[in-house]
Amino acid sequence: MFNDFYTAEQTASVxxxxxxLDLRLAGLIWRDVEADFKxxxxxxxxxxxPGAVASQTRGIYDTTTPLVSDEINEQKIPVxxxxxxxxxxxxxxxxxxxxxxDFAAQVLRPQALAIVKxxxxxxxxxxxxxxxxxxxxxxxxxxxxxxxxRRRLRENGVQAEAPLFAAVGASIYADLxxxxxxxxxxxxxxxKVVESTRxxxxxxxxxxxxxxxxxxxxxxVPNGAAYGASVDHGDFALRHIxxxxxxxxxxxxxxxxxxxxxxxxxxxxxxxxEVDLVEHGGAVRVTTA
Length: 289
Prior knowledge:
This protein is of the alpha+beta class.
């Protein structure tokens, strides 16, 4: 791909801002599983769901009834890295010698940002795939819809102490502003509200952190690479490789990461010795159109 670097006798030291969709969703979901993806683990890691047991009772003077023995059964939830996300840029000798003043700012940052944007799109896609719930919406009183979302989450088994998040589209956020529902901490009915341009304008997704799992893993640097390193961008670990193609006398800059996003069932202790895995139990999506 040809690189159209701007050439001029004098260029301002500042850079123009680029407007795009926001990057806010990935920081709201569960990422603890990333540490378990390492050499030898394979592309899938099984998240362990602790087992539960039910208490038993007998009379305080009973000396004849045998004690009841329980078994602890654990379950597993698979999380899989599905995509190798990358950006490859070919740089001519003219680019490297005459046009690029700051490689990190002009080349590496745009490449890394492309990976981060992919992650955000994947997270938004997972949120939008949550089955829609039938909840009424009144634009004059938008907080009432969040009250109903909160109730649905509680009915699914979300505990009262669990932090709640609500990703909302632009129209919903505008209604919350106009109605005066948002406080100074951007909270409504216990939800931390985040406006996202990656959702539909009339969309609400209320969820707990554990409702979705995100894993971003930097691939290992190949032994044959002349230069390779892990770089951090947007709190994600990415791999950067630079190679030289002698057949065309050009440098090649490659940034990549393994990425996986998945909805997680909500593990609910029924207090009878069973733990239910409730599909989409930790998220409720509402379309208000």
